[in-house]
Specification:
The complex is a heterodimer of chains A (about 550) and B (about 180). Chain A has about 550 residues and is mainly alpha-helical. Chain A has two domains: about 40-195, Fumarate Reductase Iron-sulfur Protein, Chain B, domain 2, CATH 1.10.1060; about 200-535, no CATH class. Chain A has 22 helices and seven strands. In chain A, the strands form two sheets. A four-stranded parallel β-sheet of chain A has the order 2-1-3-4. In chain A, helix 20 (about 450-475) packs across helix 21. Chain A is globular. Chain B is mainly alpha-helical. Chain B has a single domain (about 1-135), classed as Globin-like (Orthogonal Bundle). In chain B, about 75% of the residues lie in helices and about 0% in strands. The longest helix of chain B is centred in the C-terminal third of the chain and has 56 residues, at about 110-165. Classes of the chains: A mainly alpha (about 550), B mainly alpha (about 180). Chains A and B meet through helix 5, helix 12, helix 20 and helix 21 of A and helix 3, helix 4 and helix 8 of B.
């Protein structure tokens, strides 16, 4: 070394050596913070799912069944027979790369295996090897790969690093639904007991009690009453929302986080105020007490089971139609899967607003209307008395939650509601909203704390756009219509754009609604002053 | 003299600095980070382009180390949550020394004292970078901790409080 000149010494090539993507090795110990804990034995037992056992991804031995390879192979074969879409998605990709740089996890992490095309290739390579003639003959030359334990571990790592947000699918010229590729991979992982607790515990709870949190009817009632007590402090009106009331016109279904976690609880209060304001004949249910359906993130079987309970409850209560709250993936399930899972819901009536006469014929099969459709229709017909200025302390932006935006196309209604209930609304940059919206990075069961580093990486694109409107438009509130968002966006904003709070849209509706017989409002639904005191300004 | 030469080669130094950081990402990713100019489609690239430009200008302009904090935060906040060791996350600052010397070329001779001064300011920037990195990492842990607490404890405390008040026949005002 001593003979080299300083100029020679500083000629360092920083380019990392190329690494073959087919190499599946993942160091779970070194990558703590980017994966989720495995499902607990009790939850797999409860759901009757395979291979319940204590294990950790950092263990060398994942305690797979001895014939795991055959199980995966047979399972893959079954799925290919059952879902023509899977076979098409496996065959049709030409690896054009249009999706490659569209994934929030890839953009934030720079890990090539977070590119949707490469993530899918982890599965596709096994498909080629095992199920195509070219792959059987030419192996890796034809893009095939042998299924080994390391490949399985790699699946666990990367298919639980996809939030099934479907941003990549927007750009795919063939319309490959990458979320369904992830769903199929998770179906296969289920067969040998590789699943995560943040998904399986909610599924087991929901199967048992009707909601992800495992809340039983008496606690449900207690919580609703508690929220009504808090609300009475703000408005001077004590509401008494009906629960499990037979013969109501409408069953109202919401994500459980709306009555059990802030800031969703304020959105919940907003819903109740709206119904009181217009005199809706409705009921809550302590059984259909979660619109969310973590079965979507696990298996078709569980997806179907959890969706079914909502319709059975609608039948039991004898309602005419269903109204759904601000939930994200509930709407993907309703809009794209319900009809073939449990539908059509012929025992219900096509929803018709009793106040405006509007028939929601778009829900002819599911009989379930989104609260933003319902409220914007009320606004359109001038049915609500509002004081927008009560939201004047907020400079508001709107995060299009992936599922309502991309799966349902619910783009205008939430904006219409927002513009009617607040005076200061600002859009984030065009390529980060509407169908191009960036995910919160905590959906599809990944919103747990042990996965926080991955969530923050994946949250960068959203956080970056949010910081832009915070800095350029003084935005201090990001609204959304998804309970997972309301849980996962606060930490995201805290890290990437501090100073921005998160709220549901109906929280702002509740703030603005002028209720009959109410006290003079001095605080918002959070109990904070409507007009911040001078020294507190800018710190809302 | 030294300042003038460096000012003259500022753009070249900056480009090389950004490139030296980008080149350490896997090949496919490096291509994306270089190519995609949209700040919202490529926030990592944007953080490097904007953050490193500010840091470089600060170093060349003799800024106080504290003044570089926001620009360093722009870059390091991203690197603190990527799959990088602490050394890799902040080590790019030291890279600037080599690039400055390169930028000076022959002008290094006779400017030893002035060069040493600039290099000291790079060292100070590196110390600030370390502080920023630690702050970000601690924030990640604080966020994680708060998540667990908020989810499980926060609302239950409020429920319990109201249950007690109801049982006591009290209609207490909410003030939180």
């Amino acid at each position: 070394m001593a003979e080299k000149s300083p100029q020679e010494l500083i000629q360092i090539d920083f380019t990392p050596p190329p690494r073959n993507w087919m190499n599946p090795a993942v160091d779970f110990e070194a990558r703590r913070g980017t994966w989720s804990y495995p499902a607990a034995v009790k939850n797999l037992d409860y759901l009757g799912m395979p291979n319940p056992r204590e294990w950790s991804p950092t263990d060398l031995d994942w305690k797979l069944p001895p014939n795991w390879k055959q199980i995966i192979h047979d399972g893959f074969e079954d799925l290919l027979k059952k879902y023509r879409s899977l076979k098409i998605f496996m065959d049709i990709c030409v690896r054009c790369g249009a999706c490659a740089d569209k994934c929030h996890f890839y953009i934030g992490s720079g890990d090539p295996k977070n590119m949707p095309v490469l993530r899918a290739e982890l599965l596709r390579s096994i498909y080629r090897q095992d199920f195509t003639t070219m792959g059987r003959i030419f192996g890796s030359l034809a893009g095939g790969r042998e299924l080994t334990e390391e490949v399985l571990k790699e699946w666990y790592y990367y298919f639980f690093q996809c939030t099934e947000c479907r941003r990549c699918s927007v750009y795919c010229p063939y319309g490959i639904d990458t979320a369904e590729v992830t769903m199929m991979a998770r179906e296969l992982l289920n067969l040998v007991g590789l699943n995560i607790n943040w998904i399986l515990e909610p599924v087991a709870n929901c199967q048992r009690t009707g909601n992800h949190l495992g809340i039983q009817p008496h606690t449900y009632k207690d919580n609703v009453e508690f929220l009504c007590d808090e609300l009475a402090d703000v408005t001077g009106i004590k509401l008494d929302p009906p629960i499990n009331r037979k013969g109501a016109e409408v069953l109202f279904v919401i994500p459980s986080a709306d009555y059990f976690a802030d800031p969703g609880t304020y959105t919940f209060c907003g819903y109740l105020m709206l119904f009181e304001h217009i005199g809706l004949d409705y009921t809550l249910s302590s059984y259909a007490s979660d619109g969310g359906n973590f079965g979507l993130f696990n298996s078709v079987e569980n997806l179907k089971r959890l969706n079914w309970k909502i319709y059975q409850e609608a039948r039991r209560l004898g309602v005419k139609w269903i109204l759904g709250g601000e939930c994200g993936h509930m709407w993907r399930v309703m809009h794209q899967y319900m009809d073939t899972l449990n539908g059509p819901a012929d025992f219900l009536e096509v929803p018709r607003s009793p106040f405006t006469g509007t028939v929601f014929s778009n829900t002819a099969s599911t009989k379930m209307v989104h609260i933003c459709e319902f409220t914007s229709d009320l606004l359109r017909h001038g049915k609500l008395k509002l004081d927008k200025s009560r939201n004047d302390k907020y400079r508001v932006t709107f995060h299009d939650s992936c599922n309502p935006a991309r799966a349902v196309g619910l783009l205008e209604e939430p904006r219409y509601v927002l513009k009617n209930v607040c005076n200061h609304f600002f859009e984030m940059p065009e390529n980060t909203i509407r169908e191009h919206t960036f995910c919160c990075a905590g959906g599809a069961g990944l919103g747990n704390d042990e996965n926080m580093e991955m969530r923050l990486r994946g949250g960068l694109p959203r956080g970056n756009a949010l910081r832009w409107v915070r800095d350029h438009n003084d935005v201090n509130l990001m609204t959304c219509i998804c309970a997972i968002d309301r849980a996962t966006l606060p930490p995201l904003a805290n890290y990437w754009a501090p100073g921005v709070e998160i709220a549901g849209i109906h929280e702002l509706v509740g703030n603005a609604l002028i209720m009959e017989g109410e006290n003079e409002r001095t605080t918002d639904l959070r109990g904070l002053p409507l007009v911040p005191e001078k020294e507190e300004q800018g710190d809302v | 003299m030294l300042a003038e030469t460096l000012a003259h080669s500022r753009d070249t130094i900056l480009d090389r600095w950004i490139e030296s950081v980008i080149a350490r990402y896997p090949e496919d990713t490096a291509g994306f980070l270089r190519r995609q100019a949209d700040r919202f489609a490529n926030p990592v690239g944007a953080s490097l382009r904007e953050g490193l430009a500010e840091v470089l200008d600060g170093v060349l302009g003799g800024a106080e180390p504290g003044a570089l904090e926001p620009a360093l935060d722009r870059v390091i906040r991203v690197r603190a949550v990527q799959d990088l060791s602490p050394a890799a996350a902040v080590g790019f600052v030291f890279e600037l020394k080599r690039l400055l010397r390169d930028g000076l070329g022959d002008a290094q001779a006779g400017n030893t004292a002035a060069l040493a001064e600039i290099e000291s300011s790079v060292d100070r920037a590196a110390l600030t970078a370390f502080e920023v990195y630690m702050r970000c990492r601690e924030q990640v842990w604080a966020i994680r901790n708060a998540e667990v607490k908020n989810l499980s404890v926060g609302i239950m405390e409020r429920v319990a409080e109201w249950r007690a008040r109801r049982e006591a026949g009290e209609d207490a005002p909410r003030n939180q």
